[in-house]
């Protein structure tokens, strides 16, 4: 192995380790945010809810595809979210057999309140960073997530 190949392998291992730490931290933050919305909410329900919020309105089938989840699990979790008053169903104007899921005003309000501590923590973590550094990290993470080459 060349020196460059060895250095690259070491760098990739360090990145993997850092990503593992970040994922652990992220899981903890999701669990805490879910608990702030509802003490019994599981992290998976929180992720489903935030996906519905990001999509604005989405069918259960599209949600199952997006989240790579079983339709039965989606259906059970959607019922939970409805029972909590976080989401509502409306008829899909393009397909009368299906419904669109979207966040309720109460759901959006509770999500915003649940996110405040996480956003505050992130802001504190990067308080000394320059805006260009924040943008660059965002670009690099996006490139990593999409498997694309980052802009130079």
How would you describe this protein?
This protein is mainly α and 152 residues long. The chain has one domain (3-146): Arc Repressor Mutant, subunit A, CATH 1.10.10. Helices cover 70% and strands 10% of the residues. It contains six helices and two strands, in the order H-H-H-H-E-E-H-H. It has helices at residues 3-37, 43-55, 60-67, 71-83, 105-125, 131-146, and strands at residues 87-92, 95-103. Strands 1-2 form a two-stranded antiparallel ribbon. A hairpin with a 2-residue loop joins strand 1 and strand 2.
3D shape = globular
Parts with pLDDT < 50 across at least 5 consecutive residues: none
- Percentage beta strand: 5-15%
Q: Structural class of the helix and strand makeup?
A: mainly alpha
User: SSE string, helix = H, strand = E?
Assistant: HHHHEEHH
Instruction: Give the tally of β-strands.
Output: 2
**Integer average pLDDT:** 93
**The top level CATH class name:** Mainly Alpha
Rg from alpha-carbon coordinates? 19 Å
CATH topology: Arc Repressor Mutant, subunit A
Q: Would you identify the CATH architecture?
A: Orthogonal Bundle
Structure annotation, total helices = 6
Number of domains: 1
Beginning-to-end CA distance, first to last residue: 27 Å
Helix content: 55-70%
* Adjacency order of strands in the biggest sheet: 1-2
Largest sheet: 2 strands, antiparallel
């Amino acid at each position: 192995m060349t020196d460059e190949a060895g250095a690259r392998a070491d760098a990739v291992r360090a990145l993997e380790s850092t990503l593992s730490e970040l994922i652990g931290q992220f899981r903890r933050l999701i669990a805490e945010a879910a608990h702030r919305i509802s003490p019994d909410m599981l992290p998976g329900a929180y992720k489903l809810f935030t996906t519905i919020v990001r999509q604005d309105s989405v069918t259960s089938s599209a949600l199952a595809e997006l989240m790579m989840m079983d339709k039965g699990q989606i259906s059970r979790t959607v019922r939970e979210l409805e029972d909590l008053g976080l989401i509502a169903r409306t008829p899909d104007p393009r397909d009368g057999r299906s419904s669109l899921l979207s966040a309720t005003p109460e759901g959006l309000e509770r999500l915003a309140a649940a996110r405040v501590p996480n956003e505050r923590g992130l802001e504190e973590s990067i308080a000394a960073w320059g805006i260009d550094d924040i943008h660059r990290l965002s670009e690099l993470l996006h490139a990593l997530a999409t498997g694309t080459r980052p802009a130079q």
